Amino acid sequence: MPSPSDPAVDTPVLLVQLSDSHLVAEADGAMFGLNTRQSLARVLGQVRMEQPRIDLLIATGDLSQDGTLASYQAFAQAAQAIAAPMRWLPGNHDEPAVMQQAAQGTRWLEPVVDIGAWRVTLLDSAISGSAAGYLADDQLQLLATSLGEAPHKHHLVCLHHHPVPIGSQWMEPIGLRNSPALFELLARFPQARGVLWGHVHQAIDRQAHGLRLLASPSTCIQFLPHSEDFALDDRAPGYRWLRLMPDGQIETGVSRLAGFAFTPDLDAAGY
């Protein structure tokens, strides 16, 4: 299904990824003392300033912390300040049925987007009641169909949970539980170029399985990389941009808020 921006196949396309905004119904809702609506607004302001033309905006899960309709409406209102088509996928804190309600009449939850020389497929790795992720058979079939239908396209696959170890012991049990199934499927399709996820509240950029593997910061709090137990990083909120090239290469980087100072309140409501 073509994106409304429909760039030519011989030109790069620009994607912006937002992840793990953790909004709640209340406008003053906070995570470890950080107002998540305010931090999202600041990140979006930076996106508008740095990215004058965006072909697709992707939100890779945990848009909400409490799963309320008000939280999704707040996210949508904030993100629609970006003049670009938008797609969402659920994370472990999200409520898919409420997301559906919030997205009614839009294309925000459509899982496949053709854009320029690329196809982007968004998968639901959330398990109800669990922080860990799993790609059910219908999601693997969705991906296989998406890949098989478009052998002439380069493919980017998006999900919430990390499909590879990230070096943080406390996060390994809450990653994607059937990642071998994902990579075995992708290995059958040489047009697959990259996998993009959220959940880990930190930036990761690797090459493995013949793919570019990318994770991104949260628009609110950050997790300390390579930590044995849960720990917060003092890095600023941010977003990832991806320039998908006509030849299948991915140019990408992370942008964080400048001049951001935040001392977490570890006694306050957290993750």
UniProtKB/TrEMBL annotation:
Annotated organism of origin: Pseudomonas rhizosphaerae
SUPFAM superfamilies membership: Metallo-dependent phosphatases (SSF56300)
GO terms, molecular function: cyclic-nucleotide phosphodiesterase activity; metal ion binding
Domain Calcineurin-like phosphoesterase, chain residue ranges per copy: 16-202
CDD domains: MPP_GpdQ
Family: Belongs to the cyclic nucleotide phosphodiesterase class-III family.
Protein name: Serine/threonine protein phosphatase
Domain of life: Bacteria
